[in-house]
Amino acid sequence: MTALAKRTISVVVPAYNEGKCVDELARRLQAVFASFADRYAFEAIIVENGSLDDTYEKLLAIRTNDARFKVIRLQRNFDMEGGMCAGLAHATGDACVIMAGDLQDPPEMIPEFVAKWEAGYDNVYQIVTKRTDNSLFRRIAAQTFYWLINKISDRPVPINASDFRLVDRRLYEAFNAMPERNRMVRAMWTWIGGRSIGIEHERPPRFGGISTFNSFRTAGFSVRGILSSSYMPLKVIPVVGGAMGVASFVALGAFAIRAVVFGVPFAGFGTLVSLNLLLFGFLFVLLGLVSEYVGMIYEEVRARPTYIVRDVHGLATTVDGEQLALARRLLALAGHVATPPEASIAQPIPANGSAARASEP
């Protein structure tokens, strides 16, 4: 197979405060690349996600020694999803591997992913059989999350599926074309479809550094992920309201019969207070649910980018495709121009609404 005939596999790695991991990450990725040297070309797109340590400097040093490593530096931290989206928007491979930079997603699984891709699968993902460094609370929370999202979503997410996966070019291009800001990424891959298969593997501990996991922040992401994947909770509101209305009429009838048969009971101050607290409690829970959806609508309407690129190394830069597509859609709604078919395709987002700086170390 000649070099020109080789297909390319991209590897996208968001990295936040991974200064103690990136050298080992590069070494292990290079070993994987070498094992496919006669079959595939590789590019590694490392997205430096607003790190506070020396991650960026180390990535530039890695790129100096190996041009297959490309570096995107974001303006600030845009969370795992923002870094992932930035990398996917710049990927050019026939397939793309998405993995974390802390080496809890072992690069040595990539050959297994590639083998399944060669067998015709479009989406090959890791199923985490055991999390060695997770607390009991975090494991229970994860199981609860998967149970809940699969109960209310019409596209179930495989239990314990990881973001570590290989996706075919057709799938990640479809992902890039999806414009929403509130993303439950694992559910989005399920919605896109394609032949999918999971590979079981025990997740190892971090290679180095300190985890930035935050229970409250992750809980917020989980709630938004569930709500962005389904509007079933909104359907529950009239059901709960109707059930409580029926229960109120039944209770009213029972109290009326009791009053006729046994006479007017003693003053029911405690009962009335309890019922009011119960009803108002349900009311505010439902209002809180609606407010979450309204907040997500607000995020979508103001259409801020999911990431902003500060610098790129080794990658071509483009015009701000996502914001340009949004402007065209808004103008089309106002009746000024027709929306071209390609306007819905998201492109890499540069800094400050202009072309990002492309530089080489």
Would you kindly provide a written description of the structure presented here, covering whatever features stand out?
- It is a single chain.
- The chain has helices at 22-35, 55-65, 79-90, 110-118, 136-152, 169-176, 185-192, 215-229, 232-262, 269-302, 321-333; strands at residues 7-15, 40-48, 69-74, 95-98, 123-131, 161-168, 196-203, 309-313, 357-358.
- The chain is an alpha/beta fold and 361 residues long.
- It folds into two domains: 1-135 and 161-215 and 305-361, Spore Coat Polysaccharide Biosynthesis Protein SpsA, Chain A, CATH 3.90.550; 232-302.
- A nine-stranded mixed sheet has the order 7-5-6-4-1-2-3-8-9, with helices on both faces.
- Strand 2 (40-48), helix 2 (55-65) and strand 3 (69-74) form a beta-alpha-beta unit.
- Helix 5 (136-152) packs parallel to helix 8 (215-229).
- Residues 318-326 and 336-361 have low confidence and may be disordered.
